[in-house]
Every structure is written in C-alpha cells, then in structure tokens.
Write a structure and sequence with these properties.
This protein is an alpha/beta fold. Helix content is about 45%, strand content about 15%. It folds into 2 domains: about 280 residues, TIM Barrel (Alpha-Beta Barrel); about 45 residues, no CATH class. The protein contains 13 helices and 9 strands. The relative contact order is 0.14.
Length: about 350
Amino acid sequence: MKDLKLSIVDQSPVHDGKTQAHALNDTVKLAQLADEMGYERYWIAEHHATPSYASPAPEIVIGQIAANTQNIRVGSGGVMLSHYSPYKVAEVFRTLEAFFPGRIDLGVGRAPGGAEQSTMALAYPNYPSEPQHFPYLLEALTGFIDERTPENSPFAGLETTPNGVGQPEIWTLGSSDGSIELAGSMGLGFVLALFIGTHERPADIIQRYRKMFRPRPNSAMTSAQAMISSAVICADTAEEAKLLAASHTYWKVQAHRHGIREGIKPPEECMDLYKKLPVSDQEYFDVTRDSMVTGTPEQCREILENQANYYDVDEILAVAVTYSFQKRYESYQKLADAFS
C-alpha cells in the first residue's frame, strides 16, 4: 500500500445559517487545522452568485490562508479561466508566489462556476468566452507563467511581473477526460474531480494522461502529476456521516435538477424534505449520496485507499460540505487522524 497524501478543496460553504463573511473566516480556520494536521495542500474553489458558497475570488483567499499558515501548499481549485485575461491571472499568481515561494498552486478549470447571468456579468461589457477558446487561454497562461511566449505571438517579449520569482505549479481540473490531452501536451498536472457528477470515470483516464505528458522546458513539473478529488465526510458512525451528507446532497438535487441555488439546510430537515420529493428526485438523491465517501474514519480511509489504488495516484483532494461548521471541522480532523 502506497503512502497516501491528503489535501483539501474548499468551496467555502455557508455554515449554520450564517453569512458569507462568516464562511470566509471559517475557511481560514479550517486551513489552519489542515496545516497543523499535515495536509499537503489547500485549494479554494470559485463560485459566483451562489448563496451557499462564499468563494468568488480564490486568489484573495489564497493570500489570506498562506499568510495564516506555515507549511501547507495553497492554491485555486480552480480559477475559472474562461472569465479572465491569462496575463492578469499569471501576474496574480506570480505575485502570490513572490510572497509565499514554493507554496502556490494554480488550478484552472473551464467551467463557468455559476449561472448564465453571472457569467455575462463577469465578461461585461464584452461577451463570455466560448468553450472552444479554452485551449488558447490555457496556452497563453502557461506561456506567461513560464515567460516563454512564442516568437510569433503578439505578446512576444512581454514581461510577466513580478520577476525574480519561481513558477507556481499549474494544474488542470476535469470531471472526465476532456482536459487530459491539454494537460498532458502542455506539461500540466491533472485532477480528476470525482465529486462532480456520478458518471463512471474509468482508471484509464489517468493512464492516458500520463502517456500524453510532455514536460515543459524549465518547468519544475518534470513528470506527470495526477490527483483525484472526492467528496468525503467522516463521523463517529457510518449512520451519522450519511446523515451529514444529506445537506449537500439535497442542495445538489435542487441546484442540478431544478436550477435552485439556495442555502445549505440542516441534514434532518433535508431528510424530511427528501420524503416529499418526486421519485425521480429521490433516485437522484440516492445515487448522488452513494457516490460520496461517507463513514467512520477507518471506513473512509479504506475507501479512499481503494480509490487511490484504482486510479494509481498518491494524493487525494477531499471535499466536505456540511451544514454545521463544527461537524465539517471534525470530519477533516478524523480523516487526518485515520491516516496518521
């Protein structure tokens, strides 16, 4: 059995019926716990105009977390690149690298991270980027980070500031195999997000990415680096963990099947509401919750180790969303203890 590293993706959920401002401060507290307990890295997601998540600007939260921790790597999971100038993103993350050398990760995704209205607002007064433009945005971003813009580019010779800093690690995020060719051919890390959707993700996704990998010149990432990201909730009993998972599961039913993005509800309330759902929604709820890793710390460890062996990775990014901040905090404590 290989040694398995644990990391965290934080969507900054709004806990206990509080405000999004409270949620951001909860994120810093949780990151400090992760640093103390030996987690490898702590990534911040990007969501817009979503009452349940308080993370529209991961680059700002990254700086706060890095300043309030000592050893853990901190990054984005991920910046939704379709909204932004690759040059600006490169300068932001090189600035973070200047303050926290060797600790910054730049994870990027192609999804919008919100509904159509917020996507339009982020692009205003221009128009949202088309999905087919993502490879060009990623290529430009990589060139700016590496300061290796092609000679035939209109940006050839353009300096990316600040200078005198190292390169943040660049990772691509995907819930299937849609990004593996880009990640491999550009010499980037790849994260397979198992917590997004319930569709089958065969092990050969990671294998194909590794075969495609070609290191970038002068990059610190000299070989293929892959991780998986799973929804994980630990509790003292399997029954409690499954109950805690009901809050996020019910939210997904409303958001993904009905376009309703409301606050996260207490798990007991969610189970009462579950009984009133149409049969098709109940089936979606059941399949979604069953796709999460829930149980006692020992049970969660066994499942995660099996996932890591199946995909042949040595690091897992855990995602936990609960109504109660204390229960979420304890879930990550229990998970780390199980692997210590």
